[in-house]
Write a structure and sequence with these properties.
Distance between the termini: 14 Å
Radius of gyration: 13 Å
Number of helices: 5
Order of helices and strands: EHEHEHEHEH
Strand order of the largest sheet: 2-1-3-4-5
Number of strands: 5
Structural class: alpha/beta
Helix content: 40-55%
Length: 119
């Protein structure tokens, strides 16, 4: 059975890389004017709790708010936050969120390692 990974706030490049890996079903939750992607994901999780990993790609305070919101909606979901600002790492730990600073080096070669660590 394919493992479900849900994405919100994740850019096209990372999404394309993730879609190349076999054994994963990628669910994308886009921001819209009336609702953010993380809110749409939280609503989805109420009806389908089979998502094994949520990857949050929003940076800074917006990413912290998204992780916090997802954590309050689902206390057992594995959440990975891709953030380009290392100063948010302690807050991610406080929320029980896996944090990956997306600054150099390039993220592409590390995605398999990240997936193994989180799932």
């Amino acid at each position: 059975m394919m493992k479900k990974i849900a994405l919100c706030g994740v850019g096209e490049k990372i999404t394309r890389i993730l879609e190349q890996y076999k054994g994963f079903h990628i669910l994308r939750f886009f921001d819209e004017r009336e609702r953010r992607g993380d809110v749409k994901l939280a609503y989805f999780l109420r009806n389908d709790p089979s998502v094994e990993l949520a990857i949050v790609g929003y940076s800074g305070a917006q990413g912290l708010a998204a992780c916090d919101y997802l954590r309050t909606q689902n206390s057992t979901l594995t959440i990975l936050w891709l953030c380009d600002r290392r100063e948010f790492e302690p807050e991610a730990r406080r929320l029980g969120v896996n944090f990956y600073g997306t600054g150099p080096p390039d993220l592409e070669p590390t995605i398999p390692l990240i997936l193994k660590q989180c799932i």
